[in-house]
Structure formats: C-alpha cells, structure tokens
Write a structure and sequence with these properties.
four-stranded mixed beta sheet; single chain; 19 strands; globular; 678 residues; five-stranded mixed beta sheet; 10% strand; alpha+beta
C-alpha cells in the first residue's frame, strides 16, 4: 500500500480522468493527482502540504496559467519536490470549488478562476489566490517564490500555517443564519430599489464593467412589474435585455451569448459561452416576449436556442457545458472579424461594406459585430441572412473552438426548461422534441437505479453525487416540461425528486437545504447557500418548484416544505434582497397565485392549452381517458371532473376552488386575466 501511494505521488495521473479540464493538464510536468483519499494519504505519509488548483476547461486565465506556470520546469520541480498537487474541475465538483472559493474570499476578499489553494493534508486551507505566473512580475506574486516560502514555513514554522488553516476552516464552517420570517412586500420593494441604485440607465445592466448577464434578476423585475404594474422595474429589465441583444456579448453571426462583457456597453465580450447563460437568457427573452409582445425578444431567444442545439447538443439529446474563449492560443480569435475578413468571406466588397456599416464595424479597430448604433436593429433578422451564414462558415474554418463535452445535470435541466417554454410560446414542435430528448438523457445517463441523481456525465460515465441545484433545477424543469406536453410521467418524476430533495438535503433544524446530500463526501464545511450566483441558487429554485408542485397536486407536504423554505429564504436575504432575486421570484408566485387550469377532454389534448396557460400565467393540467387514473393519483381533485362525451371542459381554479367549467377557448379568455396585466 505504501509503495502504491509513493508511486501515485510520483507522476501525473490525470490521463485516467474523464474531465476535459483535467485531461488538458495530463501532459504537464507537474505530478498532478485528482481529488481523492489517495492523494491526501500521500500528503500525510510524505508530510507535505497540498497545492490545490481549481478551474474549468473553457476558462481563459486557466489556459494562461497552464501554459505559463504548470508547464514551466522550475515550477513543476518545486511542486513535485515539496507538495502534493491536486487538480479539480469546478464543473465536475462544484461542492469542492464552493468550499475553497469561500476560503479564498475569507483570506483575500475576492475570488476567481483559476483558484489556487495551499492547505494541510487534512484539507484545511492557509493560503489562497487566483492566477499566479511562474515568477513574480508586475507586482503579481510568482508561484515559485510562494512555494519556496511555504516550503520554508512548513519546515520551520508549521504551527503558524496549521493555526491559520484551522481559523479559516472554522470561519467557513460557521453558518451565521438569521431567523426565518414570513416574506413581506417590503422585501420585494427593497430589492427593486437596490436594483435601481446600481442600474446603468444608458446601457442597461447593473454596476460597471465587467458586466454579467443576470437572467434571474431580469425575470424577477419582469414578474414584479407585472404584479405591481411597476414601469420602472419593467424598464430596467427591457433596457438590459435590449442592449445585451444589440451588443457584442450576443454573437450576431452565430447566435448565443458570451459569458460577460468587459465594458459597460456590452460591446466587447469575454468570449466563452456557457450552457447555463444561454439556457436562462433564452428563457428570460421568451418571458419578455410574452409580457411585452415584442417580436425582437422572441427572435433573440430563437437564435440563442438554435446556437445551443447546433453547437452544444450531444448525441442522445443532452448538452455540453460550453465553448472556450480561446482558439489558436488567443482569446477571441475565432470571433474577431476585420472588414477585410468580411469582404473576403462574402466575396463581394460592396456587400461587405454594407454589412460592416450595419454591424458597427468602421475599420478603426472594431472587430466585433454589434447593433449598438443601429436604430433599425429590429430588422436584423430579415437582412444579411445569407451573409451571416457565410460568415459563420468562414469562422468555422478557422481554429476550432474547444467544447467541454461534459453534461451537467442542473445546466441540462435549465436548457430543458428553456426549450419547453419555447414550445409553449412559439408552438415549435422541434423545441418540444429537444426538451423531451434532454429529459430522457438525464433520466437514462444521469439517474442511478434508485432514482437519485449523479452530477455530471461524459463519454458513457456518470460522476459525482447530485447536488441540491441538480435536484431543484431538474424538478423545476420537469414541471416546465409538463406544462408543454402534459405527460404524467413528468409529474411523477418531479414528485419523486422533490421527496428525495427533502430527504437528502433539508436542514430539519433551521430550515433551508444544504448544497450537498447527507450521504455525500464530507468536506471541511457543508454549505447552505441562499444567495444567487451566475444563476439562481438551488435553494431559490427549490422554493419555486415546491410551490408549483403544491399548486398542481394539492399535497400538504409540499405546501409545508414550500412555506418553510420561503420563510427561511426571506430571513437570510433581508439585508441585500437584490442578491436573492431567484428567491423573490418564488415569493412573487406565492403572493399572486394566478390559478390553475384543468382541461378535461374526450379528445387529444388541444395544442393551444400550453400557450394559453403561458399567456395567462396559469399552471395547467390535462385529463384524458388514457391518463385519468394516473392524474387522479397525482392531482386528487381532478377525480371530480368527469370526462365529457365529446370536446373539452375547462376548469379554472383559484385559491382552492374551481369555477364552473367552460367549453371553449373564447369562454376561457373571458374569465382569465392576462399575465401581463395582473
């Protein structure tokens, strides 16, 4: 056993991994190991501290540090001599990343990727940072100098490092929670006021550069605007959605959104594209179309989903994590276009010049097509169609973009929800088929025999325990899909996942859900996160899903879980509610329940049912002769609704009671209230 450990510590072992990020470092001269007991056993036996490096395969600065630092012989020699080196893919193990990012923020006040951690063999961090060049330069500490100093302290003043590691561990393990309290209208108002304070009135978005898309924030503002008739909230959402879609952060050639903008105008992006951004932004643009009627928003959603289906879809129906910012060793090289490139690709100088004028490329350094100065931007879908296709082909012939082909459960669930919503809004059956394929991918590749979830999958192999966000987003996505296809199996799965989520993640004592399951690997801290990040937190989406399950099924256990979760979230986000807009979405649904619609039909489920429920903000269910038994088990009150001899009967239910049934869509519209005017 000891010989095995020594051998394991004496080579780079990442070639055995499935993660694209770990495989990118499999040829480094550093003796990398993956996270696991074998690596920590080697650290204990050899009496060495651990160097932990966390990143992901589409991360630009991870590439830079990989090229400059981890392939540098002197750096590798220092790491191999005095440290056990561990590589972690943050997308494969977000639980590890979250713990050590909290340590980095505690030690430095900031964070980011690549994340660099020095810690004891028992996983307690005593130094944290991000990008490190091999040697110090321009005021940035070099990794070689840092390692030399830590090696010296480990020999001569180890107690100091151990004491600091214990203090940091105690800090991040200490959960300071506020008392739960019932959500109050003032909390929602305060969140809108905080959004106003940071809102960029000219360019949209919140705060200065760099600017990140925040779809959950925009969805909250739109929902608040509809429920409170608040023009200011709607204006913030619309301005942001419009300016993002006109800027370079939106790929005007190939569709889809980049990760963030490096400037305040949304013009110059950081070019990596992530599945979660594109799924949730498509969902937000579809909701904006429903709420405002603007065709432009539906156009952007359609182009975003088209990008995902073309570039990120995997065999079997799932979706890859994202695409790299770098190509050919340079950030953005794939995307940047000069007027000369455009004229060459289009083989027509005059057409190329008109294209450049339309897309704001004046030849003075602007190489990113955008519509920020184009007052006729909403015509863009109808002009230069062939030219955009030619330019997309031109780009593809350049250095190809790396795609991280891992499938992450929560991110695939987000795309499933977006595709289901696209079908409900547009009626495109292609979107419904893609959503159903993604659901089956999750069910067949990422679900264990006992029904619990894994976290990620690649090349035929599932890995890591499912996290709270996987269960919460999956449950939400199944409910979104049910509203499109009315398959009772979606409801059955959502109920099962909600029950598992409560059993595996709930904090029975204080409320809320932990990020990791009760039987998952024990790290130095078990986190419970109320705050949103790039997307709404697992706790936020859990509240949203539980509320919808209760409304559909009427099951008291879901109402109880939902109410307790809302109260816990309201207590945690009191001081900065704008940081919990996902939670506020769930609270808005609780305040203004639009009602439920049950269609009982002797025929096929009418195709307009999904769209009508979308239009009026209703949760819909459909009862047929084929599914009546299953539906009555899931939604017991539907047993009271007899199937007519012919046609449909439509029951509109609010606050636990149902109105007299109507028979036609026209009659329904006479008694329902459109979602955008509630």
């Amino acid at each position: 056993m000891n010989d095995t450990i020594i051998t394991a510590a004496g080579c780079n072992r990442l070639h055995k991994e499935k993660s694209p990020y770990l495989l990118q470092h499999a040829l480094d001269p550093v003796h990398w190991q993956s996270w696991g007991e074998e690596a920590f056993a080697a650290a204990r036996q050899e009496d060495k501290p651990v160097f932990l490096s966390i990143g992901y395969s589409t991360c630009h600065w991870c590439h830079v540090m990989g090229r400059e630092t981890f392939r540098d012989p002197e750096t590798a020699e220092a790491l191999n001599r005095a440290f056990i080196s561990i590589k972690v893919d943050r997308e494969e193990r977000p639980d590890i990343d979250a713990v050590y990012m909290a340590a980095c923020q505690a030690l430095t006040g900031s964070g980011g990727w690549p994340l660099s951690i020095l810690m004891t063999p028992d996983q307690k961090p005593f130094w944290a940072g991000t990008y490190l060049p091999p040697r110090s330069r321009d005021g940035i500490l070099g990794l070689v100098e840092l390692l030399d100093e830590i090696e010296r302290l480990w020999r001569l003043d180890r107690a100091r490092l151990l004491e600091l590691g214990q203090r940091v561990t105690d800090h991040i393990a200490r959960r300071e929670e506020r008392m739960a309290e019932e959500p109050a209208p003032l909390l929602l108002q305060k969140a809108v006021e905080q959004c106003c304070e940071s809102f960029d009135k000219q360019n949209g978005g919140f705060g200065g550069a760099p600017k990140f898309p925040t779809p959950h924030e925009l969805l909250f503002l739109m929902a608040y605007a509809a429920d409170e008739n608040n023009c200011e909230a709607l204006n913030m959402a619309e301005t942001t959605l419009t300016q993002m879609s006109r800027g370079g952060i939106f790929d005007q050639i190939g569709g889809g959104f980049c990760r963030y903008s490096t400037d305040a105008e949304w013009k110059t992006p950081h070019f990596e594209k992530m599945l979660y951004d594109n799924a949730l932004l498509a969902y937000a643009y579809l909701q904006a179309h429903v709420q405002t009627g603007r065709v432009w928003y539906r156009t952007i959603a359609s182009q975003t989903l088209e990008y995902a289906l073309r570039e990120l879809r995997l065999p079997g129906g799932g979706f890859a994590c994202g695409q790299d910012a770098d190509s050919g060793g340079e950030e953005g090289r794939y995307y940047l276009l000069t007027p000369k490139d455009i004229c060459c690709a289009l083989e027509d100088g005059e057409t190329g010049s008109r294209f450049c004028r339309w897309y704001g490329m004046d030849g003075k350094g602007d190489q990113i097509p955008n519509l920020l100065k184009n007052g006729q931007y909403e015509l863009s879908n109808a002009v230069f169609v062939t030219e955009r296709e030619k330019l997309a082909d031109f780009r593809r012939r350049r250095h190809p973009l790396h795609r991280d082909s891992k499938a992450v459960v929560s991110w695939n669930a987000m795309m499933t929800a977006a595709l289901a919503k696209a079908y409900r809004v547009s009626g495109e059956k292609r979107c419904l088929r893609a959503a159903e394929s993604a659901r089956m991918f999750l069910r067949t590749r990422l679900t264990a025999p006992d029904g619990t979830l894994y976290h990620c999958w690649r090349e035929g192999e599932a890995a890591a325990d499912g996290l709270l966000e996987d269960y919460a987003y999956c449950c939400w996505a199944l409910l979104e899909l049910y509203e499109a296809n009315f398959s009772t199996s979606c409801l059955w799965e959502a109920v099962k996942l909600a029950n598992q989520m409560a059993a595996l993640f709930q904090d029975q004592e204080k409320g809320g859900f932990y990020s990791t399951a009760v039987d998952s690997e024990r790290l130095i801290a078990r986190q419970k996160e109320p705050w949103d990040g790039p997307y709404a937190s697992g706790n936020s989406i859990a509240a949203l899903a539980l509320g919808r399950l209760w409304r559909l099924t009427g099951e008291e256990r879901f109402r109880s879980l939902w109410k307790r979760q809302l109260d816990w979230l309201a207590g945690q986000i009191q001081d900065a509610p704008a940081g919990g807009c996902g939670s506020l979405l769930a609270m808005l649904e609780a305040r203004h329940l639009a009602g439920e619609l049950v269609c009982v039909t002797a025929e096929r489920i009418p195709p307009w049912l999904a769209g009508t429920a979308e239009e009026y903000g209703l949760l819909a269910a459909a009862k047929t002769r084929d599914n009546s038994h299953a539906l009555e088990q899931l939604i017991p009150h539907t047993a009271a609704f007899p199937i007519p001899d012919k046609g449909h009967m439509l029951y509109l239910c609010r606050d636990g009671s149902c109105s007299a049934p109507v028979k036609t869509l026209e009659e329904l519209r006479a008694i329902a209230v459109p979602a955008q005017v509630r």
